[in-house]
Amino acid sequence: MPSNSPPASRIARLMLQDFRTYASLDLAVSRPLVALVGENGAGKTNVLEAISLFMPGRGLRRAELAEMARNGGPGSFAVSLTLDTPYGEHRLGTGIEQPGEGVRSSRTCRIDGASVSSPTVFAEFLRLVWLTPDLDALFRGPAGDRRRFLDRFVLAVDAEHGARVNALERALRSRNRILEESPDNRSWLDAIEREVAELGIAVAAARRETVARLAALILETREEASAFPFATLSLDGEIDHLVTTLPAVDAEDRYRAILRESRPRDRAAGRTLIGPQATDLLVRHGPKDIPANTASTGEQKALLIGLVLAHARLVGRMSGLAPFVLLDEIAAHLDPRRRTALFDALESLGGQVWMTGADPSLFAELQGRADLLHVTAGHIEPSNPA
């Protein structure tokens, strides 16, 4: 591990109870690289999803918690892990209790056996970065996909960002409802627009800071001949322009004025048209200086991997914790040169990396460097040596 890497922790043990396809799982690992290999549908991604629950939000599939409970199980589930850190061992756990009649199940979070208020507290012990196949079309897809991708980047370095985004969404829904039902109630609209402006500028400022830091890190560490080309990043949106050109207080005042002036148009549209909810993350292929969405499919995949690797380095630099990296079906469409470059880059991050794949040969070169695990329905065991 490079001497300038932040302190690294390892998941030494992962336990699942009634989670997805696993009635019960007790998995011990020991290496920085972990590769889960098995047929499609065996449950590889379920393991990554379980680990992803130790970050605020709904995990890498963005599923409802109740959907994660095992079919045929009691309706509850539990995920726990043992972290080996430079400062000692810690046990983290989360899940949902068995719901009572007419009672909605609620999430529980524990650290070393003690209940904590929310998954946000887990950020004191670990940070997570992930990449899944559904992101392969990120640069060609709608702006909303790139906003969610961006917000996950911010969340990895600012554990409170998710709460701000959720609060902004609730405030926007309230404004839309008032515009529809009571458009002449100016006092209500003034009050909710003040809240929207405060939250909106805070969200936009957090995004801008993260993008600026990430862009600076990419510029600092870029290599023209890298297997994963560097990206150039910018934000596109009226509110993003405000936070770039005005102090926060002035930006809030201007956004409130925009909201007030836009009431008739927003009422007709049935939604608030201007705000952080309309931001787009613009990405360009750095070496070719072309929009990412015009690059070839292979170039887009390599660009995305390079962006996630840079983000992992930023998370380590800003949080002081080497991040855990979750990569679902990461090596399937990489040529041998890029696959080798990826494994080398992942080792250089310093944190533990969990990968999945259907073809054992994709991870053959990691023999002796990684925990290679074979996954079948509901079971995981060490792979036989190649």
Summarize the model shown.
By secondary structure, this protein is α/β, with parallel strands linked by helices. Helix content is 38%, strand content 22%.
Q: What layout of secondary structure does this protein have?
A:
Elements: E1 10-19, E2 22-28, E3 33-37, H1 44-52, E4 77-85, E5 88-96, E6 107-111, E7 114-115, E8 128-131, H2 143-157, H3 161-181, H4 186-221, E9 231-236, H5 238-245, H6 248-261, H7 263-269, E10 280-285, E11 290-291, H8 297-319, E12 324-327, H9 336-349, E13 353-357, E14 370-376, E15 379-382
Parallel strand pairs: 3-13, 3-14, 8-12, 12-13
Antiparallel strand pairs: 1-2, 1-4, 4-5, 5-6, 6-7, 9-10, 10-11, 14-15
Helix pairs in contact: 2-4, 3-4, 4-5, 4-6, 4-8, 5-6, 8-9
Binding site for ATP: 38-45
Protein name: DNA replication and repair protein RecF
Subcellular location: Cytoplasm
